[in-house]
């Protein structure tokens, strides 16, 4: 067996709100969204539509979002009562300090940049669903 790629699927309360957060704060772009009727695929969020799933992308990073009811129906092992996680999603980025400054301007839920014992400059933040996102760049330039 060969694992080719990992794309996390986040359980979320509201697809539109989540996609808007990731687009406006973190620079992701919508690849596709599935409306509640699950009768097609939209490549942009349409006014008045309610969604159960979305895929977004920024450079090489892809994330999936699935509304709680749909997620729990599709993944019975995920019948936990709370969303969010005791895990962080760690992104390797270029231009960390500029990115940090831009994110701080858009949302206040961001840690300061620190240099770790393992040689990375990094910061953490929470998204609009409570998931912890880490962003890092090598401290050796």
Could you explain how this protein is built, in words?
The chain is α/β, with parallel strands linked by helices and 141 residues long. The chain has helices at 15-26, 68-74, 96-106; strands at residues 9-12, 29-35, 51-58, 61-67, 88-92, 114-115, 120-126, 132-138. A 4-stranded mixed beta sheet has the order 1-4-3-2. Strand 6 and strand 7 form a beta hairpin. 20% of the residues are buried.
Helix content: 10-25%
Beta-strand fraction estimate: 25-35%
SS element count, helices = 3
Name the shape in a single word: globular
Query: What is the overall pLDDT average?
Result: 92
Task: Give the strand order, joined by hyphens, for the main sheet.
Answer: 1-4-3-2
Query: What's the number of extended β-strand segments?
Result: 8
- What is the terminal separation in angstroms? 36 Å
**Biggest sheet features:** 4 strands, mixed
One letter per element, helices H and strands E, the order comes to EHEEEHEHEEE
Uncertain stretches: none
Which quaternary structure do these chains form? single chain
Quickly give the structural class: alpha/beta
Calculate Rg over CA atoms. Answer: 16 Å
């Amino acid at each position: 067996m060969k694992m080719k790629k990992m794309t996390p699927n986040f359980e979320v309360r509201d697809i539109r709100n989540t996609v808007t957060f990731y687009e406006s704060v973190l620079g992701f772009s919508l690849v596709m969204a599935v409306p509640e009727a699950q009768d097609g695929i939209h490549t942009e969020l349409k006014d008045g539509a309610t969604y159960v799933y979305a895929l977004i992308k920024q450079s090489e990073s892809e994330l999936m979002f699935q509304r709680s009811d749909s997620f729990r129906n599709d993944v019975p092992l995920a019948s936990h009562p709370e969303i969010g996680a005791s895990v962080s999603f760690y992104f390797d980025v270029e231009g960390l300090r500029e990115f940090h400054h831009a994110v701080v301007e858009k949302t206040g839920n961001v840690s300061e940049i620190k240099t770790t014992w393992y040689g990375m400059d990094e910061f953490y933040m929470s998204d609009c669903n409570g998931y912890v996102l880490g962003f890092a760049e090598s401290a050796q330039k």
